[in-house]
């Protein structure tokens, strides 16, 4: 693929981005489902007008400059709230809709939120919390019935602000905190990342530079919008004037791909692997899998001579994904290269990226006109990457911790100076905790993680310490470590509890199988307290203590 010149507007702040939306005017910005399942559309001019009106409405409520949380499903109104909050000099606090109510409450308190904007999903759930926290204004996106303790709906606040003086903070400091993001973990282990408007815009500009977007593209938004990866890519695509169709449910992804016929997707490996599996399952049912592999091999050889007939040869497969899908951006976890190669052979280009919340999140993206399979690409335009501390040599390259410096790097962790200090090198590079190397051409390769965080195939981060907090109170457990085990014949990561039991708590002669069965019962009870992706799926019983440091900390890297 040749390098292509594409025009986009480089932004210094999100107010600039709103002006870009206004230039796209009558184009469709969003396709989205209403309560009844009908598809509605919102144009760019309507979108920009709603952002300005909501910012003015918040000002009318006396909440200009406030800290405002947002929680709920992806919708145009989520995006409207985020833009209006940041553009008016307030602080946006995106929250994961899968959080338990106790965690939401804790994060609201920790962030000192004055307002929370929420979708219908929380209409009933928030009633008691609203009573317990009268200092927080609860704003439902739509009108709620019997919600005496809630404030006006977001829709009514937009109406309130329509025609009022512009409340954007045009003279605001783009280097101050504008976004607060909580990392995964319990209320005790989760950190609060502080991003500035400058950080956000640096990542958006870098995405526009690096990702192969065009104004006539249609993007299906699948991933949770509170995640910086999804949010950054969506804003970047809308800078080009792309149409964004919003998926209404994970159960409906394939249905909605065929409904909206996207040209582009931004996914994590779990979705890509699911799509690839569906392709081969259908071919096996028709006993065409062997023929398809031969045809793909022949097509791959033809491309080496400049003959590309993939869209014609594999039209039937491409049509099963709407017929227009041309590119997939994949990040959040390592992608199986066999899966990636299947899509490339079929005529759907796939590029990997690498990022981390603390970098807003973009760090590197594979180069669309010169990709290197297995690499996450070159560092993006707004930052530089170095490999810190040699762990081992890999030919001409050195493996070590990936460190980043640039306009995309966070301000620090809110209320935690010690953690902030530990997160940076002496010369100001952010320590990602990921391990990798850069080849002679500057392409970045990820080889592992230095931190204990477990990255699931769906891109979710699981902090083992969080789950261990639930296990350690059990008197039958002397020591435990939660690890991620690769499943056989799959890239799926299985959360596994490795346990050294307190054998004195069991009757003499109790077998290891009986101990395992007892642990399984107790862990099943613990799983009920955790969201599904944090469930412990396997248990391993060990006979000896874990190896420890001189300060009696378990050496996690030695747990096999």
What features would you highlight for this structure?
560 residues, alpha/beta, nine-stranded mixed beta sheet, four-stranded parallel beta sheet, 17 helices, 25 strands, 24% strand, globular
Can you walk me through this structure?
There is one protein chain. This protein is of the alpha/beta class and about 550 residues long. Helix content is about 30%, strand content about 25%. The chain contains 17 helices and 25 strands. It has a nine-stranded mixed sheet with strand order 2-1-10-9-11-12-13-14-15, with helices on both faces. Helix 1 packs across helix 2, helix 2 (about 45-60) packs across helix 3 and helix 7 crosses helix 8. The longest helix is centred in the first third of the chain and has 17 residues, at about 45-60. The chain is globular, with a radius of gyration of 25 Å. The model has no long low-confidence stretch (mean pLDDT about 90).
Spatial arrangement of strands, main beta sheet: 2-1-10-9-11-12-13-14-15
- Quaternary structure type: single chain
Globally, the shape reads globular
Poorly predicted residue ranges: none
Overall average pLDDT: 92
The largest sheet is:
9 strands, mixed
Instruction: Enumerate how many helices there are, as a single number.
Output: 17
């Amino acid at each position: 693929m040749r390098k292509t010149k594409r025009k986009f507007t480089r932004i210094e702040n999100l107010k600039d981005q709103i002006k870009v939306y206004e230039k796209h005017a009558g184009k469709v910005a969003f396709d989205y489902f209403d309560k009844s399942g009908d598809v509605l559309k919102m144009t760019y001019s309507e979108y920009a007008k709603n952002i300005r009106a909501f910012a003015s409405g918040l000002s009318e409520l006396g909440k200009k400059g406030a800290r405002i949380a947002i929680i709920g499903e992806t919708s145009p109104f989520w995006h409207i709230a985020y833009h209006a909050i940041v553009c008016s000099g307030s602080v946006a606090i995106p929250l994961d809709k899968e959080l338990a109510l106790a965690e939401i409450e804790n994060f609201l308190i920790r962030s000192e939120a004055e307002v929370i904007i929420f979708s219908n999903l929380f209409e009933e759930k928030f009633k008691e919390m609203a009573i317990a926290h009268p200092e927080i204004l609860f704003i439902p996106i739509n009108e709620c019935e019997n919600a005496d303790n809630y404030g006006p709906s977001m829709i009514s606040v937009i109406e309130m602000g329509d025609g009022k003086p512009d409340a954007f903070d045009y003279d605001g400091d783009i280097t101050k905190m504008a976004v607060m993001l909580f990392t995964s973990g319990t209320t005790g282990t989760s950190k609060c990342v502080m991003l500035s408007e400058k950080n956000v815009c640096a990542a958006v500009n870098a995405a526009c530079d690096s990702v192969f977007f065009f104004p006539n593209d249609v993007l299906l938004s699948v991933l949770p919008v509170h995640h910086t990866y999804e949010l950054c890519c969506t804003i970047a695509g809308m800078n080009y004037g792309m149409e964004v169709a919003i998926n209404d449910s994970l159960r409906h992804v394939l249905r909605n791909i065929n409904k909206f016929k996207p040209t582009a997707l931004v996914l994590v490996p779990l979705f890509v692997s699911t799509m690839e599996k569906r392709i081969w399952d259908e071919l096996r049912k028709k006993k065409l899998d062997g023929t398809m592999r031969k045809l793909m091999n022949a097509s791959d050889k033809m491309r080496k001579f400049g003959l590309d007939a993939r869209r014609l040869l594999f039209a039937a497969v491409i049509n099963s994904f709407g017929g227009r899908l041309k590119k997939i951006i994949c990040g959040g976890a390592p992608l199986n290269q066999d899966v990636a190669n299947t899509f490339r052979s079929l005529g759907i280009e796939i590029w990997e990226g690498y990022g981390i919340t603390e970098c807003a999140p973009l760090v590197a993206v594979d180069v669309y006109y010169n990709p290197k399979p297995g690499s996450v690409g070159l560092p993006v335009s707004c930052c530089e990457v170095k490999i810190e501390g040699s762990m081992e040599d890999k030919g001409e390259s050195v493996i070590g911790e990936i460190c980043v410096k640039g306009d995309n790097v966070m301000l620090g962790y809110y209320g935690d100076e010690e953690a902030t200090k530990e997160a940076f090198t002496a010369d100001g590079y952010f320590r990602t905790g990921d391990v990798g190397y850069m080849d002679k051409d500057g392409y970045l390769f990820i080889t592992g993680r230095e931190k204990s965080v477990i990255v699931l195939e769906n891109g979710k981060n699981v902090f083992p310490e969080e789950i261990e907090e639930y296990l350690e109170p059990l008197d039958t457990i002397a020591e435990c470590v939660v690890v991620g085990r690769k499943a056989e014949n799959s890239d799926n990561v299985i959360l596994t509890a490795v346990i050294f039991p307190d054998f004195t708590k069991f009757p003499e002669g109790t077998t290891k199988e009986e101990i395992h069965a007892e642990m399984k019962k107790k862990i099943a009870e613990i799983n009920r307290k955790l969201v599904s992706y944090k469930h412990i799926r396997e248990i391993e019983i060990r006979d000896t203590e874990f190896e420890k440091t001189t300060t009696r900390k378990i050496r996690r890297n030695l747990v096999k």
